[in-house]
């Protein structure tokens, strides 16, 4: 048996007559994008909350877009990503007074997803940037946890799991901070989404995180990095992903000599009995002349060859134990 | 691709300029892209010089040590082999007497062109490929009309090279293109008649035929016994104004420098308003149990990875070919 639940997180940029643009440039580009993911064999699609209205306009409705995905071999929209990377006076997860607004935003997003086959993950960035949030105290983490407990209860009522995707530049980034956050959040309402590159950059072992929080893990972003943040880049205002002085490109596709041990993670996933979606994400793949299209194809090649072998090896190991 | 037809993918789309497809890691990424799209066999295209290390036989061998070394390089990306290689003896190459600019239309050039063919024949035999795919004649704008005698002259040199390829266990396939001096249906059929069916076949390129005003489906049905190789791609335009006769047609026509100013002629399968009846053509291949390679080619297009994935999508979803 080979893992079939591979989804793709929508970050693409493609060439258009108006220069490099997201495939949402127009319907024809979006159609071509979906067909390309389909050709490689992806069957799940994750996207950002802020794309939902545009997709609805382009395909008649968000379920209309999902039907186009399904016509091309996809099972469904699997995850919706919601985030407040920049803290504002309206929305800042570490500011309790903004929580009602954030909950209202999440309610609107959930409403936009009505009629879909069954989005599984409501993926959230639990905090804004570190530099806007610091000092990060236990109380700060408690305030943030309270917000996502509320949102988690809400999304569960709509059949979606609130699952937290941590950034290396977010306010909750170290292992002790992560542990405290999960201690403060209700395991029934708040789950863990493992972005392999983000944790590695922050100096956290993503495989150990998965091992320790297996029961709360509901998804992954399989992406790689070649750097651990050794110069406190996470504190760079206003944005460490593109403005860190020592590292110009943080994220890479699998199989390009990065730091994440994906075969080991794959074996750990199989051994654990996890049976959810595995998501490929490319973020800023165009930096240095790269192409999202090629990065996606190369990553899928890695899945079909290297990870498939790791998976098979893990399954053989499980069989031999039985 | 799991099918009764044998599918391969042409790498030429990646090698779009002199010095952009040289590093082995870049070539590995292209090969992995092709593999991820479901193709395990590739077609190479000839080039020249030290940067054409996946195009020029001598330079490939210099880079990889041997034929098996090159195959090992391909297999690292799970690409199992080479179906074919394209060669245009009219294209200037430093390895061919230092850019000698010879022509198959000139009998005095034939001995040299036969010599030039030998590295390709040896290389293709060494890597287990099946077809040497060649441009039989230069562009129409560069020479006076050929006439029957001129076509016979061209046939003569390809018959000689056909003997070489045949002796090496290879096929030789003449690739019609929309700029070539052999342009009309009658001229093309005349060229086939001037060559030995036992050693010389036709490489039918669906887009080139369509641009040149020849219906690929009808021509295939009529000459299936001579078609030994296929390039499958689409186009949105036919050359209805004889733009191929414009001076510098490689640029004035194919890059939109003049005439109707069409800057891109070749398109991926399934393109909007494509003129090629791809399902009809593939059905005709199936009716005849076409035994050769069907090479998907996306040259002179856009992002090569995007086009490879779109071509793969078309095969899987429109032609029902399992990946």
Automatic annotation (TrEMBL), chain A:
InterPro entries: IolE/XylAMocC-like (IPR050312), Xyl_isomerase-like_sf (IPR036237), Xyl_isomerase-like_TIM-brl (IPR013022). One of its GO terms (molecular function) is isomerase activity. It comes from the Bacteria. It comes from Geodermatophilus aquaeductus. Residues 35-286 form the Xylose isomerase-like TIM barrel domain. The keyword Oxidoreductase does not apply. Keywords: Isomerase. This is Sugar phosphate isomerase/epimerase. The keyword Isomerase applies. Pfam families: AP_endonuc_2.
From TrEMBL, chain B:
It comes from the Bacteria. SUPFAM superfamilies: Xylose isomerase-like (SSF51658). Gene3D superfamilies: Divalent-metal-dependent TIM barrel enzymes (3.20.20.150). This is Inosose dehydratase. Residues 33-305 form the Xylose isomerase-like TIM barrel domain. InterPro entries: IolE/XylAMocC-like, Xyl_isomerase-like_sf, Xyl_isomerase-like_TIM-brl. It comes from Geodermatophilus aquaeductus. It holds the Pfam family AP_endonuc_2.
């Amino acid at each position: 048996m080979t893992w079939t639940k591979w989804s793709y997180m929508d970050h693409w940029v493609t060439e258009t007559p108006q220069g490099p643009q997201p495939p949402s440039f127009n319907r024809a580009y979006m159609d071509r994008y979906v067909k390309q993911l389909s050709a490689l064999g992806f069957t799940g699609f994750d996207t950002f909350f802020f794309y939902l209205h545009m997709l609805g306009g382009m395909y008649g409705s968000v379920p209309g877009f999902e039907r186009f995905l399904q016509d091309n071999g996809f099972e469904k929209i699997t995850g919706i990503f919601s985030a407040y990377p920049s803290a504002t006076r309206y929305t800042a997860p570490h500011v309790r007074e903004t929580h009602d607004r954030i909950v209202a935003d999440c309610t609107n997003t959930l409403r936009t997803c009505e009629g879909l086959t069954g989005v599984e993950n409501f993926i959230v960035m639990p905090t804004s940037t570190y530099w806007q949030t610091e000092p990060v105290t236990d109380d700060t983490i408690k305030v943030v946890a309270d917000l996502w407990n509320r949102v988690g209860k809400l999304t569960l009522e709509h059949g979606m799991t609130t699952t937290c995707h941590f950034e290396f530049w977010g306010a909750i980034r170290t292992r002790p901070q992560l542990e405290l956050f999960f201690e403060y959040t209700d395991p029934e309402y708040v789950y863990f989404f493992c972005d392999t590159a983000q944790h590695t950059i922050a100096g956290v072992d993503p495989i150990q995180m998965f091992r320790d929080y297996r029961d709360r893990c509901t998804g992954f972003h399989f992406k790689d990095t070649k750097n651990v943040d050794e110069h406190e880049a996470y504190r760079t205002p206003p944005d460490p992903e593109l403005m860190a002085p020592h590292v110009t490109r943080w994220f890479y596709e699998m199989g390009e000599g990065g730091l994440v041990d994906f075969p080991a993670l794959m074996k750990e996933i199989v051994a654990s009995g996890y049976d959810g979606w595995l998501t490929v994400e490319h973020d800023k793949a165009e930096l240095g002349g790269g192409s999202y299209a090629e990065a996606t194809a190369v990553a899928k090649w890695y899945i079909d060859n290297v990870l498939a072998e790791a998976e098979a090896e893990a399954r053989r190991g499980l069989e031999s134990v039985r | 691709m799991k099918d009764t037809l044998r599918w391969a993918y042409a790498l030429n789309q990646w090698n779009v300029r002199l010095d952009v497809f040289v590093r082995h890691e870049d070539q590995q990424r292209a090969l992995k892209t092709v593999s991820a799209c479901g193709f395990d066999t590739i077609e190479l295209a000839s080039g020249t010089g030290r940067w054409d290390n996946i195009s020029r036989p001598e330079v490939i061998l210099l880079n990889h040590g041997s034929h098996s070394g090159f195959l090992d390089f391909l297999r690292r990306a799970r690409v199992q082999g080479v179906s074919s290689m394209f060669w245009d003896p009219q294209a200037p190459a430093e390895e061919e007497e230092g850019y000698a600019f010879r022509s198959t239309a000139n009998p005095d050039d034939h001995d040299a062109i036969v010599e030039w063919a030998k590295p390709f024949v040896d290389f293709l035999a060494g890597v287990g490929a099946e077809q040497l795919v060649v441009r039989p004649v230069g562009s129409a704008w560069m020479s006076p009309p050929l006439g029957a005698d001129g076509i016979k002259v061209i046939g003569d040199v390809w018959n000689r090279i056909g003997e070489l390829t045949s002796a090496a266990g290879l096929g030789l396939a003449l690739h019609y293109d929309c700029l070539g001096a052999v342009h009309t249906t009658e001229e093309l059929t005349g060229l086939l008649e001037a060559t030995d069916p036992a050693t010389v076949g036709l490489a039918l390129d669906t887009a080139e035929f369509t641009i040149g005003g020849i219906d690929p489906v009808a021509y295939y049905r009529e000459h299936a016994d001579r078609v030994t190789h296929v390039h499958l791609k689409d186009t949105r335009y036919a050359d209805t104004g004889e733009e191929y006769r414009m001076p510098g047609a490689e640029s004035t026509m194919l890059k939109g420098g003049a005439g109707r100013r069409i800057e891109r002629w070749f398109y991926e399968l399934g393109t909007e308003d494509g003129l090629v009846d791809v399902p009809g053509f593939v059905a005709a291949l199936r009716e005849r149990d076409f035994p050769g390679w069907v090479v998907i080619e996306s040259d002179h297009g856009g992002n090569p990875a995007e086009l490879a994935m779109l071509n793969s999508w078309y095969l899987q979803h429109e032609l029902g070919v399992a990946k």
